[in-house]
Description:
Layout: H1 16-47, H2 52-73, H3 77-80, H4 82-101, H5 106-134, H6 139-146, H7 149-166, H8 172-177, H9 180-190, H10 199-203, H11 207-216, H12 218-247, H13 252-268, H14 270-277, H15 279-297, H16 303-317, H17 320-331, H18 336-370, H19 373-386, H20 388-391, H21 398-418, H22 425-434, H23 442-463, H24 466-485, E1 490-491, E2 499-500
Antiparallel strand pairs: 1-2
Amino acid sequence: xxxxxxxxxxxxxxxxxxxxxxxxxxxxxxxxxxxxxxxxxxxxxxxxxxxxxxxxxxxxxxxxxxxxxxxxxxxxxxxxxxxxxxxxxxxxxxxxxxxxxxxxxxxxxxxxxxxxxxxxxxxxxxxxxxxxxxxxxxxxxxxxxxxxxxxxxxxxxxxxxxxxxxxxxxxxxxxxxxxxxxxxxxxxxxxxxxxxxxxxxxxxxxxxxxxxxxxxxxxxxxxxxxxxxxxxxxxxxxxxxxxxxxxxxxxxxxxxxxxxxxxxxxxxxxxxxxxxxxxxxxxxxxxxxxxxxxxxxxxxxxxxxxxxxxxxxxxxxxxxxxxxxxxxxxxxxxxxxxxxxxxxxxxxxxxxxxxxxxxxxxxxxxxxxxxxxxxxxxxxxxxxxxxxxxxxxxxxxxxxxxxxxxxxxxxxxxxxxxxxxxxxxxxxxxxxxxxxxxxxxxxxxxxxxxxxxxxxxxxxxxxxxxxxxxxxxxxxxxxxxxxxxxxxxxxxxxxxxxxxx
Length: 501
């Protein structure tokens, strides 16, 4: 089953178009996984009575599980072969989705989400070097066209889940089952096919040479650093856009769908852009546009401004991820599958473990400062005096009402002792009131206080990424000028002189 022996394969024994289409469908399975797990998190929390921490573990597995999978399997791609990795990805997507569908509690849900994430990482670990091997003279363009289907799949998954809800058949199990459709399709398209060898295998690059190129080359280290920033600029805000904008009364999920759809269209048409500007020119221009869009999005207070700023932001971040991969494959080809895997792993790991949590922390701090002390205290006092009755009512959820009452009393006790509302705890208590399901006008009052604060705090958090995005302008600008002085962008082909493109 390994394609290690594939150097001797003839061109006629490999079907590049079928493999490329299969890789695109596999990436759809990856992005549908992201979309539908996000769409069912609130339902899972209610049905299985999960804590926010448990929900966070399930959702977070989608990022760090992806990174772990890339780190483990990318170095093995040359030895195991891309076909073996795709078999493992197929089995993970199949087993992960079925585990979640039949789950009876947190641990099965978490295990299923983690196995799905491992499958997602395996798709990237196999398909990025596959595309580079299939199209050695068009790496950046084809990697952009391949990565059309990450935002494209998010749109497909999100819209499908929405339509199931509108049709009244939107059970969370059925939404998770959507993952199985592209999974079975890419299995049919790819798993019986002959795969080409990776570029490194064809050129006789040893494992030691690959590790040396991926871990010690100064340009590679610079690109890993830049990947941490480009991924943070793209994925950090995108993960928060729905919640932040919806807190301000703006349809955030539609804004995210617009961003994803626009990115898909632009990536599909990447060829003329890359050929006109060169990969380093694309990265430089993208960093400038992304900075403008990010800052504008952070000040968007109306639906019209949100869509306009999101348009600029989408144009800016569209080409980051695939063009970074194309650049590494073209300029540091000896890094091979390991280099591409490290890029993806660093990007996802930094967003999942650093950027996203830090954006949340900044949003909490900035949002707390926006809370009206008098109005907030009045809400908690109203809950303290009226919520006892909801705990004993036969309708609703008494446990949620008790949680809201206890949280409100804890905040009041802290306020009376210190003279100020405690950070984090205050907002969480307001959320507990909103989620309590109690038939009380105080819920609307709590929402009126918390919504604008959450919206403001989230938008402020976006601005903290801006200085790092500005640093990209310097990095990519320097690379672009270096290429100009050297006579143009040149792709390095293993075993041949550099080729100008």
